[in-house]
Specification:
Structural class: mainly alpha
Shape: globular
Number of domains: 1
């Protein structure tokens, strides 16, 4: 596979790039308010009518909004969520990262390494795409582990190990053990306290607000989504981005954009994260400008050889090619 393009500068002018990478605080605040508004709305729905159907709807929406917070944290990691660095980092930490047990600074370091080494042996996220293609049965086993909380419990175990300092921070599947020589339990608990404190504060605030309304039990929905639908949506989003694309270093070929309808945007593709090819071509473009960038690149014929999927079902079919499948796990 070949493409005449190697860099986004081959397609976009300097002025166009400058406009694309300029953040807009109002747009960012709108994304935050929409995400947290849907979270509040999910709680309100179940409080208004407590029924298995509304609980299921809430779990789906909350899992999608937890992923939405992760995507907004991702923009903050690139320092394009808000124009002012202090606002970007403060809101990115407290309103996006901490509620879903993430660390903005460490994620930033990890994620920028992914951009620097995309698709190479040094890519820290390579493990997210290496297992594909896989068999249909293997894929459904993975989905089942996600929905039944097994993946979520494994993620919590890993987060605890990271916070205690047993393993290095990662946002992927690669685990690197840290040397424990000379470390006391006091050192480990100090590490845990410093990393977990924002998580505890933000989640206690959420539970406390619900409790003050006589609805503290609704916080179980947040935990339930974190253990189930959030895990499923993370998995689908992650393999859709790079699995079964070209193995070379050309960003026009090794990253996938996937068109997303309303249901996908609510779940696996919040905040335009489906325009992942465009993000890799120019990683400092805020999420709300990616659709326009995609349209311009397409108009100029720059995506004719690029992996652009019509939807997430197409991606699932592409990564479950039984004939050449890796049938593990």
């Amino acid at each position: 596979m070949e493409t005449p393009y190697q860099h986004v500068k081959d397609v976009l002018s300097r002025d166009e790039i400058r406009e694309f990478v300029t953040p807009n605080n109002l747009q960012a605040m709108r994304s935050l308010l929409v995400t947290w508004g849907l979270i509040v709305g999910s709680f309100a729905l179940v409080a208004w009518w407590t029924h298995p159907l509304t609980i299921l709807v809430a779990l789906v929406i909350l899992g999608g909004r937890q992923l939405g917070l992760a995507i907004l944290m991702h923009d903050a990691a690139h320092r394009v969520l808000f124009r002012q660095r202090w606002l970007n980092d403060s809101l990115g930490k407290w309103l996006c990262a901490a509620p879903i047990w993430q660390r903005l600074g460490d994620y930033r370091t990890h994620h920028l390494a992914h951009h620097t080494h995309t698709g190479t042996d040094e890519d820290p996220d390579l493990g997210l795409s290496e297992p594909f293609p896989t068999s249909t049965s293997s894929m459904f086993r993975k989905f089942a582990r996600d929905l039944f909380g097994i993946s979520g419990l494994k993620r919590i175990y890993g987060l605890l190990a990271m916070d205690l300092g047993y393993i290095a921070y990662t946002a992927s599947v690669k685990v690197t053990a840290l040397d424990q020589t000379g470390r006391t339990w006091r050192d480990k608990l100090t590490s845990f306290a410093s990393h977990f404190a924002p998580v505890l504060v933000t989640n206690l605030a959420m539970w406390g607000l619900l409790f003050s309304l006589g609805l503290g039990w609704l916080y179980l929905l947040w935990l339930g989504a974190y253990l189930s639908t959030f895990s499923l949506f993370i998995r689908i989003r992650s393999f859709a981005e790079h699995a079964c694309t070209h193995e070379g270093s050309n960003l026009f070929l090794n990253t996938r954009t996937t068109y997303a309808g309303p249901l996908a945007r609510l779940t696996v593709a919040p905040h335009q994260v489906n325009y992942h090819l465009e993000h890799h071509l120019l990683m400092t473009v805020p999420h709300y400008k990616l659709p326009r960038m995609h349209k311009l690149l397409k108009q100029r014929g720059a995506l004719e050889q690029s992996p652009v999927a019509s939807g997430y079902w197409q991606v699932i079919r592409e990564v479950t090619q039984v004939g050449s499948a890796n049938t593990t796990g």
